[in-house]
Amino acid sequence: MLSRRWRDEFNAGRAAVRMAAARGRETPGPVPAHAPEPEIRRDHAGAAPAGHGDTGEVENLRALLAEVHELAELSQARIAELETELTAMHWRADRMADVLQIQGVRKMLHKVTHPDTHPGADEEQRRALTEASSKINAAYDLIDRTKDRKA
Question: How many domains are contained in the chain?
Answer without folding.
Answer: 3
